[in-house]
Amino acid sequence: MPTHPDDAKFPRHAATVAQPARAPHPATVAQRRTTAAGGPGTPPHAATVAQPARAPHPATVAQRRTSTESRAAGSPARDPGKTAQRYTASPYLMDGFTDRTSDNGGIVLHDKKTLYARQDLIDAANLALASVNGDRGSYVELLTTGEVYGDDADLLRVTVRMRAGRHLLSRASPYHVELAQLNAQPNQPYQSHADCHLTAQTIMGSDDAPAGLDNTEQPVIRGPNDDYTLLEPVRNAKVFHNLNSDAGANRAMYAFFLHAMPLFAPILGRLAEEARHEARRARYLALKDRIERLQGVKLDKEVMSAYAAVYRAIYDQPVLSSVFAQTFGVNQYAIPAIGEALTQVNDEGEKIAADKGGVTDLWNFHWAGVILRDGADYVTLENLSTEFLSDKNAKWYFAMYGAGGQSFHTEASRDSHVGAHPLTLRIRTVPVARAVGKRKPGGSSKLQAILEQAKKL
Prior knowledge:
This protein has a domain at 94-100 and 194-455.
């Protein structure tokens, strides 16, 4: 789990995922830089879930209005005749996302604590947050401060607070009850849990234990025809299966591998049939054979390690990595809804080796809860861990992400605490008593489109 190094900046390494090419911006844009501020084969319980409509990602960044007129006191000024570009070439920094603007122009993240958005987006976000977890709702909501972004009266400054009364519901998490009581004190600036997962839980409206032992925090996985499935994380992973971790993120990863790999084996077969090079065809067939050999084998640490090895092999091949991520809606193709979270899990083998070596410090995982969206772009509220679950602080921050190369997966993968083969999953909280339904049969049109695209790579 990420720990907070007292605002020290983290070194970054290059992302290991091949990302889809983005069309260059046709206009001259001011490059804004960040500042130095602070059993296998049968899926676990699965249910088809509704998926919000996904807006197309424009090839260009929306042009924001600029003006030479004086700004209101305390409002950030923009250079005359220039545009705030959302994602610059400067490296991702965990403590700063300076002047990022959503492609549709409805959100501006001026710095890690200063966020602006249109009222309609704020209203839609609060409606979505109030509806998570079977309408128990999120623990947080957005509110405006009365400030605007420069001379743009449509962009209102946004902050976050605890939703009144949410912590009084039955079965409310004691961790979140304590947080609500803290934030209810007079003149108290907003504080969050000093923990990435607990902070994400407040957004998801999760009352689960810190390790998610009730299995109410479930991965949302794409099916072959854009249908979506909820997976139940593997229960009692260490006791029953001798796996490495009982953390919710890891158990979600185990469930995903058990669900996805058997489905991907026939896709590897089709890719092999269509491969133009014999070496590539042989690689695909070898991976297909490795997956099929794991079917019907009792789940244990060795089996899960074998699945992880297959994932590493897929991840290291750009064509397969892209097809795999698109097929299941993971990694750079994980498109979260408001009130959901993203979790990025490090490869367990890499983490164990790093711990033994004592040189590289790899996190187990990181979580980011989604509070706001504008088209394909989304804003998260995040914090890092002090390793003490009772800790709370004001070191939370906003971050903005987008599609493909601007995704949470891609940006976070550059962190030096992330290994070479991370997995990013979309997570949604479901009610404790959710009835598990059957998966809706999916067609093949979406899969066929992905395979057709792979032929061109």
